[in-house]
Backbone:
DNA sequence: TCATTAACACGGG
DNA sequence: CCCGTGTTAATGA
């Protein structure tokens, strides 16, 4: 079983053997590429994703033409929105997009509910994940409430750099502006001033954090 | 005052 | 030429 081996490599000792077997039976392994939409607004969520490799960005969409990046998911994370949806048969209020390439395990929602009652390790995993998501959400709110655009831009760049395991951010000013729900003029100006401060170095299509 | 919009110039692929 | 970038002038909140 390929999935079983992956689980044993990625999450050793975390799940009971019985649970690992069950996951192996029902989970689907899915590769995604940058910009792939994994979950979109308004979709009814039928699977719960567990991230194995790569990073996924979670965007809030303003129904019209306004997007805002909430936070990134990394290895081992799962999506709190999905969990909330699972319990109520609700639609997704967010959009999940591949930031890098990577792999996710897709688990059908009714299985995930069954396992909550059956496996303590699953319960722990789900609630721990929920807590982590909640913390990240609060961080995002603090960031929005107490930081000006320059501070948000700095945080954003640091986050992206962390996810790409380096200090280079391969994005255009326009992409950054969209993810921060701002305009390119502002981002260009702020980036320029951050460059003067010595916080980063600007090049075409790549920003290097010092 | 500060963000947004439109417009333009420049340079690299 | 098209796109990413840097800048400015006008407008609005």
Residues:
């Amino acid at each position: 079983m390929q999935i079983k081996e992956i689980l044993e490599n990625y999450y050793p000792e975390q799940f009971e053997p019985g649970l690992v077997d069950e996951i192996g039976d029902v989970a689907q392994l899915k590769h995604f590429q940058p910009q792939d939409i994994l979950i979109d607004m308004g979709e009814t969520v039928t699977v719960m994703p567990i991230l194995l490799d790569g990073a996924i960005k979670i965007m809030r969409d303003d129904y019209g033409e306004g997007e805002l990046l909430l936070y990134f998911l990394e290895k081992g994370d799962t999506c709190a929105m999905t969990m909330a949806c699972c319990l109520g048969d609700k639609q997704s209020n967010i959009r999940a997009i591949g930031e890098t390439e990577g792999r996710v395990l897709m688990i059908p929602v009714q299985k995930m509910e069954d396992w909550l009652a059956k496996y303590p390790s699953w319960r722990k995993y789900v609630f721990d994940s929920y807590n982590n998501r909640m913390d990240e959400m609060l961080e995002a709110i603090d960031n929005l409430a107490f930081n000006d655009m320059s501070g948000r831009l700095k945080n954003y760049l640091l986050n992206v750099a962390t996810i790409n395991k380096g200090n280079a951010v391969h994005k255009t000013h326009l992409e950054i502006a969209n993810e921060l729900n701002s305009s390119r003029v502002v981002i260009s100006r702020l980036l320029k001033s951050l460059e003067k401060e010595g916080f980063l170095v600007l090049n075409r299509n790549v920003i290097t954090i010092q």
